[in-house]
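User: Hi! Is it possible to get a structure for several chains at once, not just one? Here's what I have:
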Amino acid sequence: MPLVLTEEQSMLRDSARGLISDKAPVSHLRHLRDSKDPTGFSKELWHSFAEMGFAGLLVPEEFGGSGLGFVEAGIIMEEIGRTLMPSPFLATSVVAASVLSRGGNAAQKSEYLSEIASGSLLATLAIDEGAKHRPLQTSLKAVRAGNGFKLSGAKALVVDGHVADLLIVAARTAGDAGEREGLTLFLVNPKAKGVAIERTIMVDAHNAARIEFANVEVDADSVLGEVDQAAGLLDGVLDIGRGAVAAEMVGLSDEVFNRTVEYLKSRKQFGKLIGEFQALQHRAAELYIDIEITRAATMKALQALDADVVKATPAVAVAKARAGTTATRAVQEGVQMHGGMGMTDQFDIGFFMKRARVCEELFGDANYHTEQLARSRGY
Amino acid sequence: MSDLKASDTEAADLDTFRNETRAWLEANCPPEMRKPATSDADVFWGGRNAKFSSEPQRIWFERMRDKGWTVPDWPREYGGGGLSAAEHKVLRAEMARIGARPPLSSFGIWMLGPALLKYGNDAQKKEHLPKIAAGEIRWCQGYSEPNAGSDLASLQTRAESDGDDFIITGSKIWTSYANYADWIFCLVRTDPTAKKHDGISFILFDMTSKGVSTKPILLISGYSPFCETFFDNVRVPKSHVVGTINRGWDVAKYLLQHERAMISGMGERGVGRPLGQIAADSVGTDGQGRLDDAMLRGQIASFDVDEAALAACAERAVDLAKAGQAHPAFSSAMKYYGTELNKRRHEILMSAGGVDALEWESERSRQGARPRAWLRTKANSIEGGTSEVMLGIVAKRILDLPGA
Ligand SMILES: Cc1cc2nc3c(=O)[nH]c(=O)nc-3n(C[C@H](O)[C@H](O)[C@H](O)COP(=O)(O)OP(=O)(O)OC[C@H]3O[C@@H](n4cnc5c(N)ncnc54)[C@H](O)[C@@H]3O)c2cc1C
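Assistant: Yes, the chains can be modeled jointly so their relative placement is included. Here is the combined structure:
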């Protein structure tokens, strides 16, 4: 596969960019933040997304989706990264849709996937519990009760947790925290008795929640995949999420970088454009190179996911690790080179810095993925 | 639909090519040639006085040459393999898969050949390209001068017109392998009155010409792979100018793009044993099989991340070029990153080797192969244009930042 977009993919990018930059520039996020909007995203925009086939981009055609691949999902994510548009796309259309179509049974698929595709159902994966992303450390308990299970424990950083219509919850049905065996995924109705959802207003003004489960009863039908055997399914689905977040970070890095280069070409000090100073030119050039390398690594990872999700882990680890490091550098240089302006809330650059920090933690930071690569190479 | 069909057959053809190539390499690449070269003597450079360091080296070279695979993507009429970009990518991948060495290393292949293919006239192409492909003539590069390094266009070596000939006088420095080379591609000033970039010509001549002499320069690695080169009234026919007289800067720049792309690819990417395992051999591992030096392990892992990402970018650069979407200055970006990364790799290798990597003259250390390689890599970010110059090119030509 060549690492360049095909004509169809370029068209997809152009139409996504058109819609997103038009309807959801950074001021859109700023407005949602300042007005303390209770949903934290625009329903209207989400419907436009669904009409264009984006909500069901990864949903197979038989369930009313577009049946496209991860490269295409990455294209949308990259555009989302450029304007920081808050949207259910990552949680619902990428992660939840992948969990359901890869692990769901026939009934679960037909019940939920077409609703995701039409934009009428929001869903999310509740996985992390501690400060850092450690999927195998899951300790939320699910004990057998009657013909079903009872869930108790808590989840942190559940993306879109307070607006989701469906929670996909990783729980421990056997074994101890840290073990691969004994993980199970459950479909949980957020309105079920015992579910307590607290929307967490985060640094980046995007949607997330902490959720507590106090003896929440679910029946046997709500198990997604095999009891005790969710680790394999999770590996793949989390890698899909990681690839998508890497693409978002490429988009946000590129955008911050473009804004910074424009600033270097317009701001004058000492009677010169600051972009004439070689110290700044070289830093800008290094950042450009970093972003191009990260973009290539991310395309490689998305193509690897399209080819075979199970074998994509090393490529995804490279992409997510690189994207984290590059985005961090891009936003730091962006603020620094804008001088005092970069520190003001009135200016957009800070929004990128905050979102980069959140993306870095989502599904594992650069250290986590660098460690994964070392392990996969056996040293 | 018909488009889909066309690309289906293309894909099927490529699969056939892959299978045939794999089988051919399996049958024809000697096992000794499936490990990275460990010293310069292990590399085959061709030329009039070329010697093979081993029988497998000779066999491998001759078989590849006969297939046109010393220059797989050159046209067949010039001794190339005539492969398409997609086939070439497959061949490279298949060679990397078994760790096959390049059969021939040559400035002719990396630098002069591409420039001749673009700027050379018919006679020049017919004369030089097949000899480059067959490794018969070894070339050196006469660009740098004592006072014209980064500021290459300020070069002073003169070429004065004398009928059908030029008379060349001046000196060059840092001419790699000038003492082994048969011919030189050289930048000379043909119009001293013109503006800096406008009076330069790109010319080819035989190093055995009367008036050419060389003097080796010893490096920190203990080798002297390059020379000072002197020209004392060297007579060269004007027909040896490539491109237009006084327009040599265009040729020079085009060649530099290829040189930079080549240098950025040095560093055995994806070939040989992974760094983590090399380190484990000397440092040891803990109970869980992890490298017994957590900081070194972390350095290696983040090196591996960057190296894999760069490999993807190198692949993409080729794909972009094929799709006509490449920026002509992108080779400077790759050159910068590839060389800085290669230096990092060798710092890690020295660190992993510890005391054992310090030996300079012993059989055990293969005459200090590791420290000598480490020292050699420090030139990567100097030769072919320094890192600072590369960043300047990216800033001005790609990012369009204002000139100082
Ligand atoms: C191993 C090796 C092999 C070589 N092989 C060949 C060869 O075969 N043929 C050939 O012709 N040449 C060859 N060279 C020469 C090489 O191209 C030059 O050394 C190189 O271009 C730098 O020039 P210089 O050494 O004069 O350094 P200088 O130009 O004097 O640079 C000194 C320092 O100043 C910095 N500097 C210079 N200008 C700027 C600027 N505008 N902005 C910021 N910093 C700047 C440089 O980056 C460097 O750090 C080789 C060099 C080496 C080390």
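The first helix of chain B runs from residue 2 to 28. Chain B touches chain A through 47 residues (CB under 8 Å).

User: Great, thank you!
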